From TrEMBL:
It comes from Nitrospirillum amazonense. Residues 40-264 form the Solute-binding protein family 3/N-terminal domain. Keywords: Membrane, Signal, Transmembrane, Transmembrane helix, Transport. It comes from the Bacteria. Gene3D superfamilies: Periplasmic binding protein-like II. This is Putative aliphatic sulfonates-binding protein.
């Protein structure tokens, strides 16, 4: 049941033709007034989270002369593909997609890590539907994105409830398609993450069956590639430092970040506020504990036949940037 994917540049461009349009219309952040043409760092973001984060941080001052060219993605899988195809230099993903990408032999490296509560990663169901406990998923269908944090939560929740994975149909759908299927009654549950979780709760009348709090490491990463680190290490280092400062600021002033996130992404203000207050990402060192947490994710995927057997994740961490 291992996932076979063409990770080549041609395969990526064939599978994700929309990326060109996304990258072709970048938002640029100019670093300084130097007359020399600045370098460019291409950053893959999800739903505008990092871009809004930097916009909300009032003291964001790049130390080097470069611009950020943003590419926005709906979830983590295409971010991993874009990194592996060298279409972007840095990308934001969760711990499960990072592990799934490594198992698929993507050439990626973690350059920074952030931990959250995990509360915003959840399995959503209809309040009056047939699934009222994780055990009720046996014989039912749950949708999520393959290799996502939602996928990993499903595996963890089923194991915790003693439900064999082969007793549940896992349908791999993009977030918007999964939500539509759940609301239409075509599936019984949907495993997703914020802002989709918050939107489902506040605007679609869905309820949380189980969330990732206490069940998953709750890690998120900035990833880069060997090629980008070789050519633009100083820019990657500066960008990571800027994100770290902005994360600390947003933890202290979540309403400021929520307001900018809502304005820039079009997400309703109450959804942005719920998402940011309960997620509360904070920077953590790339230490042995983080690496052990990541190894556990790869091992879990391997256990259910999704690849990565015997994979050692340690080389995928750039502990000294």
């Amino acid at each position: 049941m291992a996932w076979v994917r063409d990770w080549s540049r041609r395969g990526f461009l064939r599978a994700g033709a929309g990326l060109g349009a996304i990258i072709a219309a970048p938002a640029l952040l100019t670093a300084c007034d130097d007359k020399k043409a600045p370098s460019v760092l291409k950053v893959g973001d999800q739903r505008g989270g990092l871009q809004a984060l930097l916009s909300a941080y009032p003291d964001d001052k790049p130390a080097l002369n470069y611009q950020v060219e943003w590419a926005q993605f709906p979830n983590a899988a295409p971010v991993i593909e874009a990194l592996n195809a060298q279409a972007i230099d840095v990308g934001a993903v969760g711990d499960a997609p990072f592990g799934f990408g490594l198992a698929s032999k993507a050439q990626i490296k973690a350059v920074s890590a952030y931990r959250s509560s995990g509360e915003g990663t959840a399995v959503l169901v209809k309040p009056d539907g047939p699934v009222q406990a994780v055990a009720d998923l046996a014989g039912r269908t749950v949708a999520t994105s393959k290799g996502s944090i939602g996928h990993f939560l499903v595996l963890r929740a089923l194991a915790e409830a003693g439900v064999p994975v082969d007793k549940v149909t896992i349908a791999f759908l993009a977030p918007n398609d999964a939500k539509a299927a759940l609301l239409a009654g075509s599936i019984d549950a949907w495993a997703t993450w914020d802002p989709y979780t918050a939107l489902g709760e506040l605007h679609d009348g869905l309820k949380v069956l189980v969330n990732a709090q206490g069940r998953m490491p709750g890690l998120s990463y900035l990833l880069s590639t060997p090629a980008a680190l070789s050519a633009r290490r100083a820019l990657v280092r500066d960008f990571v430092a800027r994100i770290d400062r902005a994360r600390e600021y947003s933890a202290a002033k979540p309403d400021a970040y929520a307001a900018v996130f809502a304005q820039q992404t079009g997400v309703p203000a109450e959804v942005a506020s719920l998402m940011i207050r309960r997620t509360n990402f904070h920077p953590v060192a790339l230490d042995d504990g983080i690496i052990a947490d990541q190894q556990s994710i790869v091992d879990q995927f391997a256990k259910v036949g999704l690849g990565g057997d015997g994979l050692d994740v340690r080389p995928a961490f750039e502990r000294v940037l």
